[in-house]
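Follow-up to my earlier ticket, as requested here are the two runs.
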Amino acid sequence: MSLISVTAGEIRRDVAAAKARDPAAKGVWALEILLTWPGVQAVLAHRVAHGLYRAGVPLLPRLIATLARSITGVEIHPGATIGPNFFIDHGMGVVIGETAEIGADVTIYQGVTLGGTGFQTGKRHPTVEDSVTIGSGAKLLGPIRVGHGSKIGANTVVIHEVPPRSTVVGNPGHPVRVEGRRVEGPDADWVHLPDPIADALKRLSRRVEAVEASTENGVVGDEFPAERQVGPNPAGG
C-alpha cells in the first residue's frame, strides 16, 4: 500500500509540474497529460524502473527503460537518480546516463544529453542541482556539477563545473551572470542569452573597421598622420 501511495503522489507531482511549466498544458485535464505527454510518461516509467533497479531486480528495469524509450523517445538509465517535480518538455532525443543525479524542480527540453566521457568507471555523469533549466540540444558531459538555479542555453556543450545561478552558453560552454534579473525557474529567454565572447568579437570587429577607415583617410590611430614612405621599395623592383 505504501508503494501505491508514493506512486500516486509522484504521478500528481509530475503532472502538476507539466501543467505549471508547459504553456500547452494550460486547461488540459490531468488524465490527458498523463496519457499524451511523452516527457511525463518517460519520467513516471523511470521512477518504476529505478525502484526495481535499486531493489536488485534483474532485467525488468532495463526492459521498462527500453519500452519507455521506444514509446517516448526519451532514454533514461534505470540507475539515474531523479528528484521531485522533474519535467521534460517534448522529450524526443533526451538521454540521461546511469550515474546522473537530478535535483528537484529541474526542467529540460528536447535533445538534451546528460552523458559520460571515455570509459571510466564510477561517477561519470553530471549532477544537476535544484531549479536548473537546460535548453534544447544542450550536452552536459562528465561528472560535472551544475549549480542551483542555473540555466544552460540551447545547444551549449558543458564540460566544466557551473556556478550556482549562472547562465551558460557556447561551445565549450562558459558561465555568465544574468545581471538585474532573477535566474531561477524555467523561464529562460533562449533567443537573448548573453554571450560575452560574441560581444567581444563584435567590439573587436568595430575597432578594426575604425582603424581601417582612419588609415584610408591618412590617419593612423587617433593622433599620428600616416607618413609617406620615400626611398627604394623594400620589396625590390
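Run two:
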Amino acid sequence: MFSRLREDIGCVFTRDPAARNFFEVLTTYPGIHAVMFHRISHWLWHHRLRWLARLLSNVARWFTGIEIHPGARIGRRFFIDHGMGVVIGETAEIGDDCTLYHGVTLGGTSWEKGKRHPTLGDNVVVGAGAKVLGPIKISDGARIGSNAVVVKPVPENATVVGVPGHLVGHLAMQPSAEREAIAKKIGFDAYGTTRDMPDPVAHAINCMLDHIHIMDEKMEAMSRKMKESGLTEEQPEIPEMEPCEIVSAAEDLAARPAYDAAEPKAAGCEKR
C-alpha cells in the first residue's frame, strides 16, 4: 500500500511542473486523495463490503469532486490533474502511467449489466472535458484531445479529437514541398500549425492543396501539348491571387486594435 502511494505521488513530479515537494502533493492534490480513497474502497468492494465501499467513494467524491466507482480497476502511477468533475464508471479499467484531466468521463452507453465502460491501456492521456463512452479499448500511448467524445476503439499511439472523435494522423499532417509551393501560390500558410498539434480542419485544407497541385500539373501539361500542336494561341500569364489571411480566434485580441464597422475593408480576402 505504501509503495503504491509513493509511486502515485512520485509520478506527479514528472507530470506537473507546479509540484514542489512530497508533503505538498500528499496534502493538497485532490487527484492523489481520490486515488488513495479508491485503493481502499476497491479492496472493500472485492471483499463483499460493497455498501461500505460505496459510502467511502461517496465521501471521497464530496471531498475531492472526483467520482470513482469502487469496482473500477486502476493501474499503477495513475494521475488525475486538477480533477474536478472526473467520473470513472464501475467496469472501467485503467492501465499503468495514465493521466486524466478535469472534467473527464469514462462512462457507459447501456443500462445492461456487464462490461459497459471503457478500457484504457498504458500511457494514455485524456484531455480536459473529454468523454470516453462505452466498452471500447483505448490502446497504449493514445491521446484523447480536450472535449473530444470518443465512442469507438482507438489504436496505439493515435490521437483523437473532435465531436464525434476521429483519428488524426501525424504523418498525413506534415506539409510536403509540393504542398508548400501551392499554398504559397494561393496565399495560404496555416498548415504550418499542424507540425506540433493535429488539426482536422488544416488536414482537410492540406488535402485540397494536394489536389490543386495535381490539377495544376495536369493543366500545365495539357496546355503545353496543345501549344506544341498549334491548337492554341499564346495566352497571357495568369496573375497571382490576392493572399488570404486566416487569423486564429485564439490570437490575443487585446493586442489588436478594436474593429471599426465604418472602416473600409482591405483589398483581397481577409477572414478574422
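The only thing I checked on run two: The mean pLDDT is 77. Let me know what else you need.
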